[in-house]
Each structure stands twice: as structure tokens, then as C-alpha cells.
Amino acid sequence: MSHPLFEAVRQRYHRSCGYCGVTETTVGGELTLDHYRPRSAGGSDEPDNLVYACIKCNQYKSDYWPNDVDLAQGRRLLHPGFDDASPHLIEDEVTGRLHGLTPTGSFHITVLRLNRPQLVAHRLAYRLEKILEEKVRLLEQQNAELERTVAAQQRYLDVLSAGPARTRRAPLT
Ligand SMILES: [Zn+2]
Q1: How does DSSP classify residue 73?
Q2: How far is the CA of 151 from the centre of ligand 1 (A)?
Q3: Residue 136 C-alpha to ligand 1 middle, in angstroms?
Q4: What is the pLDDT of residue 136?
């Protein structure tokens, strides 16, 4: 039986993995519930402690929980719902790989193996899709402009071809 909060967490994370971003559509099925703070480390079943996560992220994260030494060195995982990841890591637009900007960011990437080849390929494919969508949008815009120009020219041609008929004198009898 699934967790009573499964559906709520699933909706909260928009059916995608809080850690790596893959969606149910990409993996072809439902994802899993992760306890951000593992139960083995005293984590609760409160909604804020539950993260919708793909099987791989869940496996790699396992029951890691930082001790005091880890925390002092910034070794902890980012919470997808509460931590802003942008100061900690950045995506290389060309390679699709993530780079840590802080010790926490680097640690987060390493533990969750966020540069696994399939995920990098997924990021690149997503980026390509966005570029193509933008291209299509621009082409549609261009096409609409061309259609307006053609229509205007057509109206002009209509006026030109109608013009002489209107000014033609009545034939002399
Ligand atoms: Zn994931």
C-alpha cells in the first residue's frame, strides 16, 4: 500500500524528481517517496520531510544524514523544497553537466550522482527541446508577418487591376 501522503507529495513536486528533475513521463512510471531526513536518523513522516524522488536519486541518497563534522564542512544535501540550489550549483549549458559553486553544491552533486550520463543526456535533450520550441515560435511569428505582407500586396494588386477598369472611358459610339 502506498504512503497516505504519496499523492499530495507527488502533486507538490509536479510529478517530477525533486533532486534531478526527471518526470514520470520520462521514466515511464510513478516515482518514489524519499524521507529527506531518513527515518533511521529520526526523520518524520511530516509532508515537509517527504520528497518525490526517482528510484536512482533515492538509491544514491540512501540513508545519508550529515553529522556535525559534515555540517561544519558544508557536506549536506539540498532540500528541493526549501533550499535555493542556485547559489550552490550551476548547469553548464554546453555540456549539460552540473558544477558545484560551494562545498555543499559539490557534495550534493556527488552523493546524488547528478552527472550520471543518462541525466546529462536528459538535460541536453531538454535544452535542445527548448531551443527548438523557441525556433518554431520565431518561425511562426515570421510566417504570420509574411502572410500579412502577402495579404497587403494582394490588396494592392487588386486595387491596381481594378483601377484601369474604373477609369476606362465608356466606348465611343
Ligand atoms: Zn532523480
Answers
A1: T
A2: 51
A3: 30
A4: 97
